[in-house]
Design brief:
The protein is an alpha+beta fold. It is built from 9 helices and 5 strands. Homodimer, and heterodimer with SH3GLB1.
């Protein structure tokens, strides 16, 4: 392999000089070019976005796949660019065990027939879980990982380059300052040499003239290098600024992905609820359920002492009638709408971004919702779409 020794030596010298300069800045022994306040805010916002995105991503991974060994295996397959082998969910494994047990005990026995029903339900629950994991990974985890491994790496690279450009610019400023000081000193010596004795005049004049010309050239060179460094720094600062301002678009994209994740999660739990309700109805219609539930009334295992899964909750039976809701005497607040919202039913109020509405709450209402009023219109509005004003 052909090594360029001079280039390696030059790069090593630049690296060492920057390290010394950075250390002197930390110790307050060297001047530092400061970025404007808006740029510093963009940097802080970008760092905050990266840190929290990383935490949310890692914890979502833990929630979706609690097994660390499985997560490591999936990570290795991704790095090797190979497809992850299909892995049955715990629900599917449990359902398969129940179905195999039913064959051993006899499908016609009370225990065997019940095992078949419960095992089939567990398999469907496992299938719903598999679909939930796959969809969540595509709609939520993948965009977060793409930001961390793609956009953020680009931002980090340009920030490091900007820091190097700043160090180069400060080094040029220091050299220019030093050259100006030396040039002024040489000019002073050149002027005072005219007052010396005649015998030493020629020698002193020649030396001062040569020194003056030398520092003039050094000053011109330093000024040229500083102009070049300033241009490169300004160009790199603009590139970095554009990338940092793109964090707002990242937030919008992550917001959309978060809403999709919530929808997928709600659909998954709804499927599980429906499967369990169906299983409960099947077991309730089974003639063997009489034997299972033959306990004295009022006993701890009496089904009548529990609220059935499909029974309406207190809030559902006593449904909130929007027309009858009256605002409290005190406690109403103004709120600014952040995003457009289309009402899901007649009890909700459609919203338009940037409009102002009056909001308040009523006893027994879900904390995620408020009552909103706009003129003669009234309805429930989601809290996450509002900015409450003092």
């Amino acid at each position: 392999m052909d090594f360029n020794v001079r280039k390696l030596a030059a790069d090593a010298g630049i690296f060492f000089s920057r390290a010394v300069q950075f250390t002197e800045e930390r110790l307050g022994q060297a001047e530092k070019t400061e970025l404007d306040a808006h740029f510093e805010n963009l940097l802080s916002r970008a760092d905050c976005t990266k840190n929290w995105t990383e935490k949310i991503y890692r914890q979502t991974e833990v929630m979706l796949q609690p097994n660390p060994g499985a997560r490591i295996e999936e990570f290795l397959y991704e790095k090797l660019d190979r497809k992850v082998p299909p892995r049955p969910t715990n629900g599917e494994i449990l359902g398969q065990f129940m179905l195999e047990a039913a064959k051993e005990f006899g499908p016609g026995t009370p225990y065997g027939s019940t095992l078949i029903k419960v095992g089939d339900c567990q398999r469907r629950l496992g299938g719903a879980e598999r679909e939930f994991l796959q969809t969540s990974s595509i709609s939520f985890l993948t965009p977060l990982r793409n930001f961390l491994e793609g956009d953020w790496r680009t931002i980090s690279k340009e920030r490091r380059l900007l820091e190097n450009r700043r160090l180069d610019l400060d080094a040029c400023k220091a050299r220019l300052k030093k050259a100006k000081t030396a040039e002024a000193k040489a000019a002073l010596e050149f002027n005072t040499s005219h007052c010396n004795a005649l015998c030493a005049f020629v020698l002193s004049f020649c030396m001062c003239l040569s020194s003056h010309q030398l520092w003039n050239e050094e000053l011109d060179k330093a000024e040229h290098e500083m102009r070049v460094a300033q241009t490169e720094f300004d160009r790199q600062a603009e590139v970095t600024r554009l990338l940092l301002e793109g964090i707002s678009s990242t937030h919008v994209n992550h917001l959309r992905c978060l809403c999709e994740f919530v929808e997928v999660q709600a659909m998954y739990y709804s499927q599980c609820h429906n499967y369990m309700q169906e299983l409960q109805r099947e077991l309730g219609r089974s003639p063997h359920s009489l034997e299972v539930n033959s306990h004295p009334a009022g006993s701890p295992t009496d089904p009548s002492t529990f609220l059935p899964l499909n029974s309406p909750s207190l809030l559902e039976t006593d449904a909130l009638q929007i027309e009858e809701v009256q605002p409290p005497a005190s406690g109403t607040r103004k709120a600014k709408v952040l995003y457009d919202y289309d009402a899901g039913d007649s009890s909700e109020l459609s919203l338009r971004a940037d409009e102002l509405i009056t909001v308040y709450t009523v006893p027994g209402m879900d904390s995620d919702w408020l009552i909103g009023e706009r003129g003669n219109q009234k309805g429930k509005v989601p809290v996450t779409y509002l900015e409450l004003l003092s």
